[in-house]
Amino acid sequence: MVKAASGVEVSKLNDAALRRWLHAGVSRDYRDPQFPEIRLRAAAGRTRASVHLVLNENGKTVWQKVGTWPSMCIKTLCADLPVMLAKRNVGGMVTGQFDSVGSLLEWYQNILPITRPIARVGAAILSR
Questions:
Q1: From first to last of its 128 residues, what are the pLDDT tens digits of the chain?
Q2: What is the CA angle 55-71-90, rounded to 5?
Q3: Which terminus of the chain has a lower count of CB atoms within 10 Å, N or C?
């Protein structure tokens, strides 16, 4: 009976190290302390691994699959990671409030009747 791999291997994130990790078959997950947001999880056959972004959102750990190694280039992913995280954070601020552009426009239509009288009062005060 073959024992399933478990645990996390911590090492540098490069192709040679990933090949050694998959071949060894000791640990299921792989991470690099330099890139704590990137985790790899070995597939059952240990010939490839799923690449995930692991982030904390609203107090919960969220795993988002980005691709599969060796199909994707780890060097490119590491180089693009700061830009990916920045885009995700900027997008997260808007998507946290509005699900779509339609919901934004609906909110705007609902808020207009409330803000118009306030704007008129403010204009009247300023014109004195």
A1: 444 566 888 888 889 999 998 898 888 899 999 988 889 999 888 889 999 988 887 888 888 888 898 888 888 888 888 888 877 776 543 334 566 777 778 877 887 777 777 767 766 776 77
A2: 30
A3: N
Q: What is the dihedral of CA 113, 117, 122, 128, to 10 degrees?
A: 150
String of DSSP letters for 69-86? ETTS-HHHHHHHHHHHHH
Which residues pair with residue 72 across a beta bridge? none
Residue with the two structure tokens 């597939």: 43
Measured between alpha carbons, how far is 119 from 19 in angstroms, rounded to an integer? 65
Residue with the two structure tokens 């795993």? 63
Q: Is the pTM of this model over 0.85?
A: no
Tokens of 111: 């808020």
